[in-house]
Amino acid sequence: MSPAVQSLQAVQSRADRGAAGAQAGSLPVAAAAMPAVARTGVVQRRIGFELETGIPLAEQIGGGGGAPVSYGPLDNDNLEAPFPGGKLMVDHVPGHAQTALENYTEWNIVEFVTDPLDDRLPQATFQNLATTWVNDLQALEGYAQANHAQVQNAPNVGPPGSGLDVRIGIPPGGDGGAHWNRFAPQATMGIKLSAIGNIFANETQAGGFAGHVRHDRIAQGAQPAEATANQIMADIHAAYPKRRHRSRSGYRDMQGLMVLICNYLLTGAANAGRGGYRKNFTTMMYKSMLSSVRNSIIGKSYPASMLGNPGRRANIANFVLNRCGRAPGDEVFDGITFGTAPVYAGAWVNSVLAGGTDLVFLAMKNPWSNEIAPENIHGDRGAVMEMRDTSDFGIGAHGIAGLNDTANIVAYLTQLYQLNKQWSRR
Question: What superkingdom does the record give (predicted)?
Fold first, then answer.
């Protein structure tokens, strides 16, 4: 393990121990599983990264007792090997030549999933850590190019948690067209409910052109979500007059929940009838169930008075559908199913507002992944989300030449880290 990683882990371990007594019992078990601790000892949300490479992997099959050897595909959770600063998982890219030796059509590639990081590290500390990640991945790539061996023989890699015989590199006689030097990043972060509307409205950038998913998920989905949520809140004001609305406890949290609901409903309508990878229909894919977000704020007076009453809740669900232009029988996102059944807008909104099951979350998540429960972000309620395409926020990775482009990768990751730090301070 590198000195930079050891140093950071020691700092975080001391902070975790210092905060444990003050915070004991303050978070539900699911939220406490990934705490982040700032220097104040207050439990916070962390940011994490997923860095896809082109380093090839495969499961070795056979070979014992003189049996012929072949290689098979891996599911995303078939590796889970320890690696400095996080763990190695499997992802996939198309284009592998299927043969009797290698019986699969997609490349199994290494994805490095970082441990969650404190979101208030000094910039220099983060840059040192990111440099260590990249250097370790480059050493892994160099080993894979020179060897074909069990993955735990590679530098810094622990044994696969799956117990499978996972091999790294290209076997003799295998497809030699690996995507060496590939680099594709994503980031997962907690964002305050009180800030998400402004972020969607004013900090997203529509790429491509009208009628294109990349454009419309922003121009017709994220950017109008705050204004649409404000209309819904005005509908609630009119239906249930109160002397004060905006100053009531939990008002801004409930408004943020409405923004998140509207983003999905508006984006789903904008991209209805189009093909492609459904997760990329939205600029942010929620890693917290919206029903869990609702449950995290229901103890506050305003959400309790509006969403805790079944009659009011049913009317509010109708306000949401009407303002988003969706009928109850519309699919939230075309083609996204839970089991074999589509997820319909009416049932989904009602379930989210009632604190039930978020079927859109279950339909969109990977089978091996779990919910990251909503957590407080420096004193405010938040939800955890995955930034699907950082160019939607003006941070493009197009200038990165590949995994060997250390300086540009670190600069890029630093931009993302600093952006999330700015959001967490609002």
Answer: Bacteria
In this structure, the number of other CB atoms found within 10 A of the CB of residue 341 comes to 10
Q: CB-based burial of residue 32 (10 Å sphere; 0-12 exposed, 13-18 middle, 19+ buried)?
A: middle
Tell which residue, 48, 49, 53, has the closest CA to residue 403: 53
End-to-end CA distance of the chain, in Å?
35
Q: Are the C-beta atoms of residues 254 and 304 closer than 8 Å to each other?
A: no
pTM for this structure? Answer: 0.86
Rounded to the nearest 10 degrees, how much is the dihedral formed by the CA atoms of 137, 141, 147, 153? Answer: 10
How does DSSP assign 219-248, residue by residue?
IIIIHHHHHHHHHHHHHHHHHS--S-STTS
Query: For every residue of 320-388, which 3-state class applies, written as one string?
Result: HHHHHCCCCCCECCCCCEECCEECEHHHHHHHHHHCCCCHHHHHHCCCCCCCCCCCEECCEEEEEEEEC
Radius of gyration, alpha carbons of the chain: 23
The residue assigned the tokens 């117990």 is 163
Residue type at position 248: R
How does pLDDT run across 392-416, given as a tens digit for each residue?
A: 999 987 789 999 999 999 999 999 9
DSSP symbol at 189: E
Q: Which two tokens stand for residue 63?
A: 């070979």
What is the spatial distance between Cα 278 and Cα 40, in angstroms, rounded to a whole number?
40
Amino acid sitting at position 126 = F
Q: Half-sphere exposure of 20 toward its Cβ, with a 13 Å CA cutoff?
A: 8
Tell me the torsion sign for CA atoms 299, 301, 305, 307. negative
Tokens of 127: 């840059």
CB-side neighbour CA atoms (13 Å) of 351: 16
Q: CA 335: distance to chain centroid?
A: 20
Q: How do residues 344-354 score in pLDDT, each as one tens digit?
A: 999 999 999 99
